[in-house]
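Customer escalation, tier 2.

The customer says the design service returned an amino acid string that "doesn't look like it belongs to this structure." They asked us to rerun it and document both sides in this ticket. The original C-alpha cells are below, unchanged.
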C-alpha cells in the first residue's frame, strides 16, 4: 500500500464514483474506512477520503478490495454525501447483507467467468415471453428462472430480464452477484446487449435495480427510449423471458402487450385464480389477439389443474375471443421449495423431482419440441407399472 500522510493533496473537483469501483467493496467496509471508491486504474483503486486518514482502517479496506489503494482528499461532508449516494444510509442494511443474514445456505456470489458465450440454437426469430401473475406469492419468479434454466439445458440460448421494477430479486433467487443491472442500461452506462451476465446455471441474466423507487413506474415505452427495448437483443437469444411484477398497472400491461406471448401463473388458491382472471381480462381488452399461456403452480394433480384452467378460460371467454391455452402444471414439491430457500433453481438442485419433470414438459411445449418420454408413458405406467424409458 502506498503510504498516505494526513496532509494528502486536497482536490475540489466534482467526483463521480464508477459503478465497477463501488462493487469491489461492501457498504460496511466503505463506511468503516470512510472511503468512497471512485475508479479502478489497473490494480489500483482510487478512493476519496478526508483528513485525518486512519491508516489501519485503510489497510483493512485494501485487503477487502484486493487492490492497491490511492486516496485523494476532499471534505468530510462530500465523502459522507457520496457514501450515502453509493451505498445508502449507514444505519440501514444493504440488500446484499440482508439477504445473507436470512439465507439458509451460503452460496457463491461470484460468477463462473470461465464459461464461454454459447451460440444460439437456431436462427429463428427470438421469442419473448412475459411471465406474470394476478397476485404476488404464486411462484412466478421461480417459474421464470426454472423454465429458463430448463431450456438452457436443452441447448437454447436463453436471456432473462428482471422487470419487477424497483422490487427486483431474481439475482437473489439465483444466488448470483451480477456486474450490471437494468438501471445501468437506462442510464447509458452499458449497452443492452452487453449488460447480461452468463450464470453458472446456463442462463443470461439482466437483473433489476433493487430498491430503486425511481424506476417503479417504468413501462416498455420508457425502456425503448432508453435503448433498452427487445429489438436490441433480436440476434442475441433464442428465448427471452421477462419476469414482470404482479398486477395490472400500466407498466406491467405495457410489457405484456409488447411480448410475443404471456405466461400467466396461478395457483389453486381462489384469490390467485380471481386475480389471474382480472389480469387476463385487462390484457385481452387492450390486445384482443394476445396469446395467453397458463400454468397452474402448486397443483395437486393434472386433472385439478385443467379444471382450474377451464373455469378461468370460461370467464375470460365471456369478455374476449383471445387465445388462452393451458400449457401445464407444476406440482407441489417440498424439494423445489427447499431449493428456492437455498437460492438454487430447483430443476438443478432436484432434477428427479416431480416439479422438475412438470417444467420440462412445459418447456418442450414452449419450444415446440417433442415432450419427454416420461410424459408420453404416464398413462401406461399407471396401467401396467413402470415403463422403462427408451
Amino acid at each position: 500500500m502506498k503510504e498516505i500522510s494526513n496532509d494528502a493533496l486536497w482536490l475540489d473537483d466534482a467526483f463521480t464514483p464508477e459503478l465497477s469501483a463501488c462493487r469491489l467493496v461492501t457498504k460496511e467496509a466503505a463506511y468503516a474506512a470512510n472511503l468512497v471508491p471512485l475508479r479502478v486504474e489497473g490494480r489500483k483503486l482510487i478512493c476519496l477520503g478526508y483528513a485525518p486518514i486512519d491508516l489501519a482502517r485503510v489497510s483493512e479496506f485494501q485487503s477487502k478490495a484486493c487492490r492497491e489503494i490511492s486516496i485523494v482528499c476532499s471534505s468530510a461532508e462530500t465523502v459522507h454525501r457520496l457514501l450515502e449516494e453509493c451505498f445508502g444510509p449507514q444505519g440501514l442494511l444493504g440488500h446484499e447483507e440482508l439477504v445473507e443474514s436470512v439465507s439458509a445456505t451460503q452460496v457463491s456470489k461470484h460468477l463462473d467467468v470461465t464459461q464461454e458465450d454459447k451460440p444460439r440454437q437456431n436462427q429463428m426469430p427470438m421469442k419473448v415471453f412475459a411471465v406474470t401473475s394476478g397476485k404476488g406469492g404464486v411462484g412466478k419468479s421461480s417459474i421464470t428462472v426454472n423454465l429458463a434454466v430448463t431450456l438452457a439445458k436443452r441447448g437454447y440460448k436463453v436471456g432473462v430480464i428482471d422487470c419487477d421494477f424497483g422490487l427486483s430479486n431474481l439475482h437473489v433467487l439465483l444466488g448470483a452477484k451480477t456486474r450490471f443491472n437494468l438501471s445501468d442500461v437506462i442510464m447509458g452506462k452499458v449497452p443492452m446487449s452487453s449488460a447480461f451476465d452468463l450464470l453458472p446455471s446456463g442462463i443470461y441474466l439482466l437483473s433489476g435495480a433493487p430498491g430503486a423507487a425511481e424506476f417503479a413506474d417504468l413501462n416498455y415505452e420508457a425502456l425503448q427510449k432508453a435503448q433498452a427495448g427487445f429489438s436490441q437483443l433480436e440476434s442475441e437469444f433464442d428465448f427471452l423471458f421477462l419476469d414482470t411484477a404482479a398486477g395490472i398497472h400500466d407498466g406491467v400491461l405495457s410489457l405484456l402487450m409488447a411480448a410475443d406471448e404471456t405466461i400467466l401463473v396461478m395457483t389453486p388458491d381462489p384469490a390467485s385464480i380471481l386475480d389471474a382472471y382480472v389480469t387476463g381480462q385487462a390484457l385481452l381488452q387492450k390486445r384482443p389477439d394476445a396469446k395467453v399461456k397458463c400454468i397452474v403452480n402448486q397443483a395437486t394433480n393434472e386433472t385439478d389443474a385443467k379444471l382450474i384452467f377451464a373455469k378461468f378460460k370460461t370467464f375470460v371467454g365471456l369478455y374476449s375471443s383471445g387465445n388462452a391455452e393451458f400449457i401445464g402444471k407444476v406440482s407441489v414439491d417440498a424439494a423445489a421449495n427447499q431449493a428456492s430457500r437455498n437460492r438454487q433453481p430447483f430443476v438443478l438442485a432436484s432434477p428427479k423431482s416431480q416439479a422438475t419433470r412438470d417444467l420440462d414438459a412445459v418447456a418442450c411445449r414452449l419450444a415446440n419440441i417433442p415432450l419427454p418420454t416420461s410424459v408420453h408413458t404416464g398413462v401406461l405406467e399407471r396401467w401396467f407399472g413402470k415403463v422403462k424409458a427408451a
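Tier 2 assessment: The sequence is consistent with the input. The longest helix spans residues 270-286. Residues 1-13, 103-115, 375-390 have pLDDT under 50 and may be disordered. Sent an explanation to the customer and offered a walkthrough call.
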